[in-house]
Amino acid sequence: MGVLTGKTALVTGASRGIGRGVAERLGRDGARVAVHYGRSEAAAKETVAAIEAAGGSAFAIGVELGVPGDAEALWEEFDRHADGLDILVNNAGIGTTRPITEISEEEYDKVFAVNVKAPFFILRDGMGRLRDGGRVINISSGLARTAVMPDNMAYAMTKAALDVLSRDLSKVLGARGITVNSVAPGIIDTDNTAELLHGSADGWERAAAFSALGGVGTPAEVADVVAFLASDGGRWVTGSWVDATGGSLT
């Protein structure tokens, strides 16, 4: 029996990358997983199929985030499949790599709408669905704690805001035994980092050099950290910022 058997989890942005890795891991641990996607239904169905092929249970819900009414629409979809929630992983996010002198107000507003506003209101509207003893895990970034990539400034600001949300919400939900934490990956090998890692002959080596472990992380490695926080073993960790950068901040 898996350590999360009988639990229901929702992972936003779970059709690919870190979100898919987290969804698959929680599914292997026994949770029934709501696989949220914003655009690619086919990719979300692939994640669901992978979870089911490994003996787990999952369902897909499609809602665009960063638009008015997104949280309400997400929970409406979720409620069609489940009557409560034990684990919420706010993973969905978009990036922007542009100097402060070039970023537009529209681009700035969009990245904050998806990365900060959406999880804030997903949590606001979801707290009544979250069972006592539950888990909230927000996917942050090592860039919230370092200035090595200043062209990612707006993105890093959104992740710092998410860290404040984790810290403060832990006080709000603590009386119910619900933990709230941020997990901060470093450079992870996903579609979003393909240009950085593979766009030049030495891209991978330069990225690996950031890590004290001398490598580039995988979605599965971040998922392992999330799985610990989601398990009973993580019950005494809350309001924390968990460094999952492979030592990139040392």
UniProtKB/TrEMBL annotation:
Keyword entries, A-Z: Oxidoreductase
Keyword Oxidoreductase among UniProt keywords: yes
UniProt KW Cell membrane keyword: no
Molecular functions per Gene Ontology: oxidoreductase activity
Superkingdom classification of source: Bacteria
UniProt xrefs under SUPFAM superfamilies: NAD(P)-binding Rossmann-fold domains
InterPro entries linked: NAD(P)-bd_dom_sf, SDR_fam
Xref: Gene3D superfamilies: NAD(P)-binding Rossmann-like Domain (3.40.50.720)
Similarity field: Belongs to the short-chain dehydrogenases/reductases (SDR) family.
Protein name: SDR family oxidoreductase
Organism of derivation: Streptomyces griseicoloratus
Higher taxonomy: Bacteria, Bacillati, Actinomycetota, Actinomycetes, Kitasatosporales
